[in-house]
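thread from #wetlab-drylab

HS: before we spend reagent money on co-crystallization trials with NAP, can we at least see a predicted complex? here's what I'd submit
DV: go for it
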Amino acid sequence: MSRIPVAILGATGTVGQKFVRLLDGHPWFEIVAVAASEQSVGRPYGDLVRWREPGPVPESVASLVIQRCAPPLDVTIVFSAIEAEIAGEVEQTFARSGAYVVTNTKTHRMAPDVPLIVPEVNAAHLDLLNVQHKNRAFSGGIVANPNCSTVGLVLALAPLHQIFGVERVFVSTMQAVSGAGYPGVASLDILGNVIPYIGEEEEKIEREAKKLLGTLSGDGVQEARVAVSAHTSRVAVIDGHMATVSVGLSQRATPEQAIAAWTGFRGDETVRGLPSSPAHPVEVDLRLDRPQPRLDLERGAGMTVTVGRVRHCPLLDLRFVTLAHNTVRGAAGAAIQNAELLVTRGFVERPA
Ligand code: NAP
C-alpha cells in the first residue's frame, strides 16, 4: 500500500528533527517535503540541519531541498513545529489549501473549533473538525496537541477523572532544556541551576488541562470544572519533563485504587490500534526513587507516561510524580499519533 505524503514545517528544529526520526519507516506516512525559515530555504536538508538525533539523517530526507513554509507542498498532512508568532497565518493557509495541519504550536490550541487532542483521553473531540469545516473556509483542517508539560499531567489525571472525578490539582514541574528548542537556554544559565520561570507555561497547563478533560457538547467543548494551580521550572536535564502532583477528588480514592485506575487505562479500541499508541499509556513504577528521566523516559518508545511515588496527600487526597518525554509524547510523537487518528477516523484517506 502506498503511503500518505506528509510535510514538516520547522523541520530543522528540535521538534522537527524528532519528526524526521520518528517518521522514518512509518507504515502510513512518508516525508516528501521539509520546510523552515528563509535562511534555510533552497539547501539540501542533510547539508544544512544541525542534526541532534541519534544515528544519521534518514537518507530519503537528507536529499530533500528545504522549502518555504507555504503551500503548495503537495501533501495531505502538514506537521507544524514552527514558532507560535508565525504559525497562525501559515497553518490556516495550509488548512484552506486542503491539507490537514497537525500542530505543536500554541496558536490554535484554545480556539473553540480546534480539536486539542490526546487520543487516549479525548479522541471524541476530533468531531470539532466538522464545526471547523462549517465555521471556516477550510477544505482541510487544524488539529493540535497540547503543551509538552500538559500532556504528562493530563494522561495521569484522565484515569482518575473518569473514575473518581478530579476537582483540584496542584502541580509543580521540572522541565528539560530540550523543551526550549535549539539552542534554547544558554548553558551558563542552566548548568548547576534551576530556573523557576518558563514564559506562559503555567497558563498553558492550567487552561489546556481543562479543555482536554472537558466533554464535547454541541458545537464546542464544555471545559472540565477542575481548579489547576501550576508552578514550572527549567532544570539541567536534556529530555523529560517531571512533575509533582497533588489532586483533590470528588470521590475519595486510596493509592491502591488510583494505581488500579492507571494500570487499567487504555483509551478506546480505535486508539489502541494506532501505530504510535503504546501498549500502556500510563505505567506505574512503585520503586521508591522512580521515575527518573535518565532511566524511565523511553518506556513505550517515549509515548508512555510513568507515574510513581503514589501516596496519600495531607492537603488534598493523593500525591504522585509523573514523567513524560517532552519531544516525543509532548510534541512529535503526539502529533504523529493525532495524524494516525485522523486517518482511522476517515478525515484523511489512505491511498489504495
Ligand atoms: P526550535 O528548535 O527553535 O526550531 C524552530 C524551527 O522553526 C526551525 O526549523 C526554524 O527554521 C523554524 N523557523 C524559525 N523561524 C521561522 C520562520 N520565520 N518561518 C519558518 N520557519 C521558521 O523550536 P522547537 O523546540 O522545535 O519548537 C517548535 C514549536 O514546537 C514551537 O512552537 C514550540 O513551542 C513547540 N513545542 C516544542 C516542544 C519541545 O519540547 N521543544 C514541545 C511542544 C511544542 P531555521 O532552522 O531555518 O531557523
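DV: The radius of gyration is 19 Å.
HS: ok that's useful, forwarding to the group
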